Amino acid sequence: SRGLLGKRASVHFIKRYYLRLAQLRCSLGDYAAAEALYMPPELLAAVEKIGNIEGYFWCYLGAASAALASRSIEKSAHFLAEAEKCIPANPSPSLAAQVRLAHGNLALARDELDTAETAFREAEGLFRQVGATGHLQGISDCLACRGEVELRRTNVPGVLAVLKECAALAGASGHVDLQVKRLLLESVVLAEGVADKDDLFRDVLEHLD
Fold first, then answer.
1. Least packed by Cβ within 10 Å: which of 29, 42, 135, 164?
2. Is the pTM of this model over 0.85?
């Protein structure tokens, strides 16, 4: 990939190239390659030349996500700590929310469910401060993660409560995230054996079907 860039590629192009390629590798499940693509010398040099510290934020946050996906929890925590150092220079609710969401995922990987839930709720609150209607994808991600916490607790009422929030978000925005649909399917499986499961989930199904 380095040879394809050539010497004349702009620093902005190099930044976009590596970040998009890393995202692609993540989507393909090649997390080791993705982690490496978030931290190559060429990308870091380009970010430094641009002089935008937010670029470092996305490099470190991406590396943290890729490392966590490959179950390298301590390495993920290290990258996340580096990403968090960029927040004071870019004090936006969106970036702060991304950090809290990542902390929640880290706690979830450690099976620290109460800590994870707190982080997800904090992230959701920050995402709702973004723009006039909030950061819909971010809010949806947080709801799905909160649902995952309740699934691990085998807490059917808790899952239902999160799903109702998902339904409200879907109804208000017309946006139904794939994670929310997965959560819905898992919750129905979890509810097997609950006598009134049809009544419990009918209102949610009407919104998310």
1. 29
2. no
- Cβ burial 121-138 (10 Å sphere, 16+ → b, else e): bbbbebbbebeeebbbeb
Which residue stretches of the chain have pLDDT < 70? 1-9, 12, 51, 132-133, 173-209
Using CA atoms, how far residue 154 sits from 95, 145, 208, in Å, is 31, 14, 21
pLDDT digits (tens, 9 = 90+) for 33-79: 888 888 877 877 777 777 677 888 888 899 999 999 999 999 999 99
The single residue listed with the structure tokens 């470190």 is 60
Take residue 173 and report the two structure tokens written for it: 């925005």
CB-neighbour burial class of residue 70 (10 A; exposed 0-12, middle 13-18, buried 19+): middle
